[in-house]
Amino acid sequence: QVQLVESGGGLVQAGGSLRLSCAASGRTFSTLTMGWFRQAPGKEREFVASVNWYNSNTVYADSVKGRFTISRDNAKNTVYLQMHSLKPEDTAVYSCGARKMVGFTISPYEYDYWGQGTQVTVSS
Q1: For residue 35, which of 22, 19, 17 has the smallest C-alpha distance?
Q2: 80-113 tens-digit pLDDT
Q3: How confident is the model over 19-41, as a mean pLDDT?
Q4: Phi, psi of 87, deg, nearest 5
Q5: Is the confidence at residue 30, as pLDDT, over 70?
Q6: Mean pLDDT of 42-48
Q7: Three-state SS for 113?
Q8: Residue 26 half-sphere exposure, CB side, CA atoms within 13 Å?
């Protein structure tokens, strides 16, 4: 089992920045890919970014490219999502997921473990 705990969400004005953290514990040795997803009210969960633990390769959704950066600290078993130039449409509950299999995917159904999520609200 892998436990994931997100933190760092909050209320920010448009154009501002936030950094989300996702701390992993448990059988982290089997976790190869970590991803951030978000879900706005009335919408499906959507892919934001992903990072591979093995070589730190990253993938981003087009909507956040150039504004968000995903990174990881293997020593701390933590994944971060640095968000800049936030927009009101970025408002959502952000959750991190862990995927045991190698390889990137934007489908949340391909992730095995999830955190509880953290709310990000961007005011205009």
Answers
A1: 22
A2: 999 999 999 999 999 999 998 888 899 999 999 9
A3: 86
A4: -120, 155
A5: no
A6: 96
A7: strand
A8: 14
Distance, CA of 40 to CA of 88 (rounded, Å): 11
Q: Which residues sit opposite 81 in a β-bridge?
A: 20, 70
Given CA atoms 117, 120, 121, 124 in this order, what sign does their dihedral have?
negative
Q: Can you give the pLDDT at residue 31? A: 62
Alpha-carbon gap, residue 25 to 41, rounded angstroms: 29
The answer to whether residue 60 scores a pLDDT higher than 60 is yes
DSSP 15-44: T--EEEEEEEEESGGG--EEEEEEE-TTS-
AA letter at 112:
D
Q: How many CA atoms lie within 13 A of 112 on its CB side?
A: 16
**Cβ-Cβ contacts under 8 Å for 38 (sequence gap 6 or more):** 45, 46, 48, 90, 92, 93, 94, 95, 120
